[in-house]
Design goal:
eight-stranded antiparallel beta sheet, single chain, globular, Jelly Rolls
């Protein structure tokens, strides 16, 4: 879907493009393209106080070393609940992690401080084109809830964009914690295709961002009569950045393929996951774009892009 400036799906408009933001450090608001737009997305504020550093990479290539971390000294990952590393099942390299949607998962020590700036990325593929239930790609578990989680979510009534990807961040490790959610409804065709997901938390800016295939797609509500209000008064736009984001430091575990809510794990992923990476610090949109497009021989390091700032 790269190269499209807009996509009309039923009663919504999805803005696509290389990035929904202008060049880094340029505080510009960019209105989503297409007809019937009623919302804008803003350039993320500069202010990443945490030096960017890769802390973990699980490539899931060797079944004999199922949880090997490509970062020296990084935490190993342990498959559980029947999760399997299968040759040829991944998107990159020699293999991938297969999960059954019922019990399968893989876990490790949390490789980043989720209370500070961090970035998590992964390649993911569902068993079906559009799953009919919420499914979790990755999360970081506390005692009662997940500090953050990235999910596929079926279409919700009155939300623009239909089925979408969500990144949710909880402020405290309590069952009823206040949360913020970033929603990306663009830049993907099918859940059964391989999609690259990246969640970025910029703690100084208190902003949570979600990229799909390197894109920052916003689905907005139609305003056919041009009165400045959505035609459906209950329509909610899907915006891939959430402000006022704050989180606790998850002490329990990083979870691939499930999330914790009210003290219990659930929302298991059904499909395959590959090349999970963790970074200390908030990566830029150009660095995320590099991870989602430069596939062959991409080293285990923070992408070096001079313009990224």
């Amino acid at each position: 879907m790269a190269g499209l400036s807009g996509l009309l799906v039923g009663a919504l408009s999805v803005a696509l493009g290389p990035s929904a933001w202008a060049a880094p450090h340029t505080p510009t608001a960019v209105t989503a393209s297409g007809a019937g737009q009623t919302s804008t997305t803003a350039q993320p504020p500069a202010g990443n106080a945490v030096p960017r550093e890769v802390t973990a990479r699980w490539e899931f290539d060797r079944a004999s070393e199922a949880g090997v971390n490509s970062v020296p000294g990084g935490p190993a990952m342990t498959p559980g609940g029947g999760a399997r590393l299968v040759p040829g099942a991944g998107f990159m390299g020699e293999g991938g992690l297969l999960l059954d949607g019922k019990r399968g998962y893989s876990s490790s020590a949390v490789p980043v401080d989720t209370g500070n700036s961090f970035t998590m990325t992964a390649w993911v593929k569902a068993d079906v084109e559009e799953p009919t239930r919420r499914m979790t790609l990755v999360s970081a578990a506390g005692n009662a809830t997940s500090s953050f989680r990235v999910d596929f979510v079926p279409a919700l009534a009155h939300r623009a964009g239909g089925a979408a990807w969500e990144a949710t961040m909880a402020r405290t490790d309590t069952a009823g914690s206040r949360t913020v959610t970033a929603v990306n409804a663009g830049a993907w065709n099918s859940g059964a295709d391989w999609n690259h997901l990246a969640v970025v938390y910029d703690a100084p800016a208190q902003q949570l961002r979600l990229y799909v295939n390197g894109q920052f797609g916003t689905a907005t509500c139609f305003d056919d009569n041009g009165d400045g209000a959505a035609d459906d008064p209950q329509c909610v736009p899907a915006v891939p950045a959430a402000d006022h984001a704050r989180s606790f430091t998850a002490q329990r575990s990083l979870q691939v393929g499930r999330a914790k809510s009210h003290g219990t794990f659930g929302d298991h992923w059904s499909g395959a996951i590959d090349d999970v990476r963790a970074f200390r610090g908030a990566l830029s949109d150009r660095q995320i774009g590099c991870l989602s497009t430069q596939l062959d021989g991409l080293p285990t390091e923070v992408p070096h892009i001079p313009e990224a700032g």
